[in-house]
## 1
Amino acid sequence: MLQPFEKHPDFVVRQAHPFNAGPPPRLLSQSYITPTNLFFVRNHGDVPEVDIHSYRLQINGRVLRSLSLSLEDLQDNFERVNISATLQCAGNRREELMALESIPNELGWGVEAISHAVWSGAKLRDVLAEAGVERETDLPLHVEFGGLDQVERHHKQFRYGGSIPLGKVLSPEVILAYEMNGEPLTSVHGFPLRAIVPGYIGARSVKWLDHITVQNEPSENYFQRHAYRLFAPHVRPETVNWADGVMLGEMNVTSVICSHDENERVLPGPVTVQGYSMAGGRDIARVDVSCDGGLTWIQAELFNDATCWAWTFWKANFKLAPGNYQLVVRAIDTAANTQPQDISQVWNFKGYMNNAWHRVNIKVG
Ligand code: MTE
């Protein structure tokens, strides 16, 4: 089937308008660098058409000099760097939370709202230095990213945006990316320019970047102040106090099985279980895999490109006789953070940050 935005024929479309889709897990785990036609897409509005001749990135707020930069200005005047980074949506694996209790008006992502690319662009800290912002001040400053796409929520139209703390902005991995996997960004991934904030939820990697504002407070944008906040499992929309939610930034530790579908039938004998894991700014230290629902575990073999901004692929081999099995995976990062066993501990009414042990039931024989 022909897919929009030149995506792979097997892309799983969760929503046509706006376009939200991702690769089938098996394809996702086939290449460490996700080919662009398989890279997941998360949009809150329609993809804007940007005229590259009139396009300017505006940098303003608490800066010494406001800047207005064309794409060429960025490419010609700032060092080009490559960052190998995995983007993951905070709503990845929401489907499992929804199976526990319904989560209305949110996308039911499986395990495919994550992908990995090599991004090229300018370090944001270099660009901000040009605007006269060079180091952290005593003020807890924030940097707002604004996109060009129009979004509608609660009968109001506005543009997508969000922010990150200045401390993170000044880290070398945060870039203004104009290329993805060696090619100019495609329209659906943010052409001509997007923020890439490795280690943070994908929501902060704002696409179709229009402005950057240095300010005292986090962005007032709906997607910073309201959405992408984490609440305790007992909180319900009817009783929520929005200001109490944790404004999401750094990703947690997670791991997922990609090699098998729920209730898949496999032949007896050697069975290789594979998938991804990710710790958002720390390395994965160990991945444990079980075939008996978590009673016993073996340690998986790990593969990654040695940067903490990138996911780790893992693989574990079992020899299975006919019967029913529950495959389970859990990862541990270098700070000994691990994943909760029970999904009810991480359920929240917006369906974010599900990093419970990932379980897949299979039948052998
Ligand atoms: N930027 C804009 N302007 N509009 C959006 O809807 N979605 C965000 C982020 N940046 C979004 C955006 C979210 S929630 C995610 S997970 C990532 O983009 C997804 O990036 P991708 O579509 O390139 O995979």
Note: The pocket of MTE is lined by residues 39-44, 87, 89, 147, 149, 160, 189, 202-203, 205-208 (CB under 6 Å).
## 2
Amino acid sequence: MKALVTGFEPFGGEEINASIEAVRRLPARIGAVEIVTAGLPTSYTRSLVALEAAILRAKPDVVLCVGQAGERAVLRVERVAVNVQDSRIPDNDGAQPMDTPVIPGGPAAYLATLPVRAAVAALHAEELPAELSMSAGTFVCNHVFYGLMHLAATGKHRFRAGFLHVPPLPREKDAPSLPLDDIVRGITTILEAAGKDR
Ligand code: PCA
């Protein structure tokens, strides 16, 4: 089994994005799962182009996209991607779409096809803070998650896919965060769970 795992470049004026830092530290293999990684720009116009190119290159069985979300110190296994773009802040190209669909005419939502509940249970078994999340927001992460699931549902190359939101790395006192090692272990645990459920 081959898995493509992606992380995002920093956004919103920050210098670090925990998602790409963690993805870069993944080993080349986790048990029977071969790991390929890619970085995505935090850009509405460029992210899905980069993701589709990485998928066509790697031809993975599983795709896990990872992004950073600042509000809580938990790993959020996303269940639902919605066909809505509504930006609180500009992306890295200065674009700030509001009230527009990711894909005009596409379904209102797609559901992750990775075993989300088993993934959360596996994370809890590793004593990592984790929850099943019903919304990946309406910014670039949801845009990529929706585009990913649309590709999985309609493209020629078939694969299972999902999205994980991770907290920022520890920096300011009292801000929600998770150490890098825990985030790497969390991603590894989800890929192991996906490898078991085939
Ligand atoms: N998080 C943003 C986009 C890139 C990232 O890492 C989001 O949650 O939409």
Note: The helical segments are 18-24, 44-58, 116-125, 140-154, 180-196.
